[in-house]
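Re: the 428-residue chain
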Amino acid sequence: MKKYRPLFTRREILKVGVIGGLTLSQYLRAQAAIGEKGAKRSAIFIFLEGGPSHQDTFDLKPNAPARYRGEFKPIPTAVPGIHICEHLPELAKRMKDYSIIRGLTHTIADHGLGKKYLLTGNRPSQTLSYPEYGSVVSKMHPSARDLPTYVSIDESFVGPGYLGNEFSALTAGKPNFGIPYSVRGISLEDGLTVDRYKSQRRLLDDLDTAFEGFEKLDAPVRGLDRFGAQAHDIISAPSTRKAFDLEQEKPAESKRFGKHEFGQSLLLAARLIEAGVHFVTIRLRPAEFDFDTHTDNFSRLRKLLPPFDKGLAGLFDRLKERGLFESTAIMVAGEFGRTPQINGQGGRDHWARAMFALMAGGDIRGGQVIGETDAKAAEPKNESVSPEDLASSFFRNIGIDSKMEFQANVGRPITLVRDGNPIEQLFS
């Protein structure tokens, strides 16, 4: 495996947001307890909230009846014989950079459960909480001691599951073009915030009060002054914030990604990877970037697809220019696809029996399509791909064995991805 070599110094770290389920000094203590195991392949997971319509993006059916095929036309890509939606021209030009998975299928057409499935690679269970991808990477491939391993933009949904809160995401808010990306009241311990403090001494004094009695706990929790000071240093030092200050970018670079929250989030993700963060999830909460198109599917996609096209193309180009494309595993997916037939409101409803995913970077061989759906994009035509297969492939591209086991608090070892295997065609 190629070693990851960050282009930025490890001092360049986020103008941090709120840590989901974990405070910054807890996070730092956990990283120290784990120890640095050496740099591994980094990863970016772009989660398309709401369930994007597969037959209007990467799996068009131009010969299907009108009530199925919809309004969009296919266009040729840089790879002969592969066509995608007319509203994805930049990704069509870059078809050699990624693979399309068209035979992806499951049976959970519910947003909450579907997201848990696709964000972990394991079918949701009532008795066991599975960790999301970034939490696994946080445990297995920790970043440098003074960097977060896992950053989530804009919100973590599943969490670290049975791995424990120390492997939670560091959650950063959505960046907006033209608005400074600033600290927004970083949560430390017991509701304390950095905004309240005028000096490091006051911060440490309050931390001592908040953590009174913790010295009786085990080694990873001791040394609170040291970790509290380290947390303060990371947040307050101007030199550590540059990697997350999008105002450092030239106007042309922001324009390349797009002056919208999706493009700016991908630009931030690129900067995080360059700084040495090992995993970034982009999961924008439903607002202006919501693919749950029960009504007005086509007018909404005309607004959604151009930012997606521009932003993802910009990410590919940026990572290649910085020499990081081959050391960064990239996956794009939502929780499910949309119904083959258009409903009475001009929309498409939930449909899990067919959907798409994209994979790029690392060892992925771009310029190919994995799987095929039937004439109406209703279900796989021949062989199918499961979310477990997708997860196994993603972990393999990151450098993690999906069949490894973890000891959990349920009294038995847990296989990382219980079912499914890597999709060999992606790597050949």
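The radius of gyration is 22 Å.
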